[in-house]
Amino acid sequence: MAGDYKPHFDVQITPNCGYVYSREQAEQVVREFETRTTSKYSCYKSRSSFGRTDLCKSKHRVRWEDGNKDACTRMGFDGVPFIILDSKILDCQHGVDRHNYRKTKAQSDAHRDHDFKKRRFRVQGTKKFGCEAKINMCEVIKFPQFAIPIEIDSRKRRDVAAAKLKEALQENANLGERRIYMYLPTPADHTTHLNGEATGMSQPVDERIVKKIRILVGEGVNNVREMGRHIRQYVKNELFLGQELPPCTNRRFHPKQVDIRNHMYLATIESRFSKFDQENVSAKTGDWEKKYAEDNFFYRPYQEGCITVRTTSAAEDKKEKNVNDKSENVNDDNAKRENEDEAKEGNDDQAKEEDDMAIGLQEHVNLEKSLLFVHQSAWQRRLHCLPLRFSSRASLGKMG
Ligand SMILES: [Zn+2]
């Protein structure tokens, strides 16, 4: 554990093990643990219902102690029966690569195809180093009403109490106390990589910040520098209000401008090709076809890979422009004016930097895969079928 940080379990059992009463509190403990130890865990195994599992959905065994040697839950015999509902495991982000097979297969398939694909250059191939550190969570329901005194424990007493408990559960499924037992790894569990503040730069941007960027892009913030200011305020005044800020080397809460730019770009693209909107148009087209049987409709949704895009900063655009201008030695007024503007900006560093951050997109559109919507009304179709002189007169007449 980093420094004097103590996880906020509702009930602590050992320094890195305890339990909480709700899924929200469990999420809060994980988030805080990641922040304070500058680590990141990703979900390896989980059901969406974890923390709110329905007891009646399947049969469960009544237990008195946890026979699992995994030691994640550390539940010894305390006289109180319980039922294990579900478990969840979070791997260290530098853990085992569970998509290795898919990745190697995709690579070999790509080699088989002869078409050229542009690839990103990655300085670091993978983040996965086979680290075995894990956060283990276990959702259980304890039934203190059916407890037996530890001193007079016997096989028979356990069986009687368990039978009573099962009977009671058939009448009322809301008995008992729901707990999520949590086991957090220690620094020694991270065996294959450095940990702590030294790994701050390998932290991905926090999900809440990514969401905030999406919202702000939707509200019209399209300047990276301005977005950076919003994010700093958001981290300080909302995520860590009244708390100590994480070190500035932690990229998760202090994203670099390149991170902000990438997430803004993704948000722009996502909003432009929202699947949800396309489904709406598709459904609407079906409605219109029925309602206006005489009209023609054609709808082709946007297809994956239709647009290849790359982000460029305004500065890059300008540089390119300048190079072109110089090589052609153009002396026209526009170019002059632009150069004068740039000279002015040169005096004002802040303004220039802001320009450097402005986002630009260079796109190449494959027209056969792009979104297309065509509507031809019955009137337009009839007009199209008329001989040219009539149709031109008709449209002129209409216009007049
Ligand atoms: Zn690790």
UniProtKB/TrEMBL annotation:
Biased amino acid composition, Basic and acidic residues: 315-350
Single GO term (MF): DNA-binding transcription factor activity
Coiled coil: none
One Pfam family from the record: ALS2CR8
Domain of life: Eukaryota
Residue span of region Disordered: 315-354
PANTHER family: PHD-TYPE DOMAIN-CONTAINING PROTEIN
Protein name, UniProt field: Calcium-responsive transcription factor
Protein source organism: Paramuricea clavata
